[in-house]
Amino acid sequence: MINIDKSWQPFLEGEFNKPYFNDLNSFLNTEYKNHTCFPPESDVFNAFNHCEFDKLKVVIIGQDPYHGVGQANGLCFSVNDGIAHPPSLKNIFKEIEQDLGILYPKSGNLMRWADQGVFLLNATLTVRAHEAGSHQNKGWEQFTDEVIKIINEYKENVIFLLWGGFAKRKAKLIDTNKHYILETGHPSPLSANRGYWFGNKQFSKTNFLLVQDGLEPLAW
């Protein structure tokens, strides 16, 4: 189950050997053997494998993978090429269009972001098909909180985009003397229709901070 880029291994090796992670791994082996689960086993650590630790510049925190067939690809909010865009992703692209004038894309695959240093981390990395939240409270949250703590400790000037109440609760893990936090509402229709998403300019603000720190802006 553990297939993770070598740049992350020195930081996470200890986590993989802890009792809770062994329990999580046993649970996942049973789940994937007996049920349809997403993303495919080979894609579970895609957030790490498409964003090397040294190149990480921005963190976006999601909650759960998509649980529909063919959707989840291991990156939060992202779907595979050719898959219809879920409502939250549609609103993300609409805001980028308003904010930066970038035309709404055909593909909802955000690997192009990850390859530029955007770490697209779900708090829970797996899910059973058609059962939202089915792999919560099995150990993933402890693991991904530890990942955020590691980024906080060993990196500087990372931009954390915290969208919605769940992501905002992770702010306590982040040292704002070392890093940036940009908060707004969740891109879900419920939040967006209440005026908590559109007009947040998270994407232009992120690029402004990157350029300010002498880094390349992102091609969102």
UniProtKB/TrEMBL annotation:
Task: Give a GO molecular function annotation for the protein.
Answer: uracil DNA N-glycosylase activity
InterPro entries found in the cross-reference section: UDG_fam1, Ura-DNA_Glyclase_AS, Uracil-DNA_glycosylase-like, Uracil-DNA_glycosylase-like_sf
Any idea which UniProt keywords this protein has?
Cytoplasm, DNA damage, DNA repair, Hydrolase
What EC numbers are recorded for this enzyme?
Answer: 3.2.2.27
Tell me the compartments it is located in: Cytoplasm
Annotated ranges, domain Uracil-DNA glycosylase-like: 49-210
What is the name of the protein in this document?
Uracil-DNA glycosylase
Provenance organism = Xanthomarina spongicola
**Gene symbol of the encoding locus:** ung
